[in-house]
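User: Here's a protein and a ligand (L6N33NVT). What would the complex look like?
Assistant: Let me lay out the input and then the predicted complex.
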Amino acid sequence: MRKQGVLLVNLGTPDSPSVSDVRKYLDEFLMDERVIDINPVNRTLLVKGIIVPFRGPKSAKIYKEVWTENGSPLLYYSIRQKEMLQDKLGNKYAVELAMRYQSPSLKTALESLKKLQVESIRVVPMFPQYASASTGSVIQKIMELVSKWQTIPNISFVNSFHDNDGMIEVFAENARKYQPETFDHILFSFHGLPERQLTKADHSGKYCLQTPNCCARLNDVNRFCYSAQSHDTARLIAEKLNLPKEKYTVCFQSRLGNSPWKKPYTIEVLEDLAKKGAKRLLVFSPAFVADCLETNFEISREYHEEFRNWGGEKVQLVESLNDHPKWIEALAGIVLGEPIDRILQPSE
Ligand SMILES: C=CC1=C(C)c2cc3[nH]c(cc4nc(cc5[nH]c(cc1n2)c(C)c5CCC(=O)O)C(CCC(=O)O)=C4C)c(C)c3C=C
Ligand SMILES: [Fe+2]
Ligand SMILES: [Fe+2]
């Protein structure tokens, strides 16, 4: 009997923390028209002329700090997730892993599924919240590659899973051991996005970023908005932990370049809280399903140190979903297309 194919796709990471591998990675990643969405000439000048030569060595230094004996944490946990999902789904399924940039490549993973002549392919971009720069880019690239095949199997894409109950529960469970109620404040720090990418994604053209809290609540107008989905993920985790609204803040990290990105910036929230006297902060990073440079370095190291400089004591990261067995169970539900039964709030 033919198998059902499953393809997990995460962002990608350099092959090694050497300057040349980090430059190769940044080049492929940032030349993507969905990531740096400006005109191609300016993108080429910016990426190849400035970011890759100058940021490359700085990023390589950071990658060296997060690199472990198992390599890049993002790749290590992605492989674990693939292996554990294969065990969970059994031999009627063939599970492959790919990275959007660098290795293992999408081309190789798709070729493996093609060789097996799988009945269907279910693609899961491993980003809980939809963004054109992450999920959109994965879907576009796969469609480009598969469009050249003679026989194209049934193929389906998971667009987002920001409200998946199993995923929400694992984030909450990972937090419980730190006793969230003992912290001065909780942050839900999502990967940032340029504001223009949020407004471009607003098909009504008159909703996102128009009023101060337009996307602090998910509704039927902003249902594909990265910010609105991020707020929804945060709200659901907070509800699981019985956190009152005033006890937590949704914020956005990792800004690149000078254009405005989605606010509030995590670093500014940290400074503000420290100056108001907060000492201990618990930080979730629910845009990722695996720990990576952004969590292990930017939050655990950089933000912790900055917060201490402003008079705080501790920034405690809640670890990501990584290889938690309940996350793999939730992932199996996402692959098998569990029904989405939550009713969206009417637009405000
Ligand atoms: C939620 C998923 C991600 C979105 C959306 C995203 C957008 C985005 N990122 C950059 C620039 C950089 N991101 C970097 C690292 C990085 N980004 C994500 C995820 C998303 N990025 C992950 C998982 C990682 C970590 C990878 C790892 O190896 O651990 C980096 C590289 C690190 C550095 O030099 O700081 C850059 C650069 C832009 C411009 C962008 C635009 C929408
Ligand atoms: Fe990024
Ligand atoms: Fe929005």
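Summary: The longest helix spans residues 40-66.
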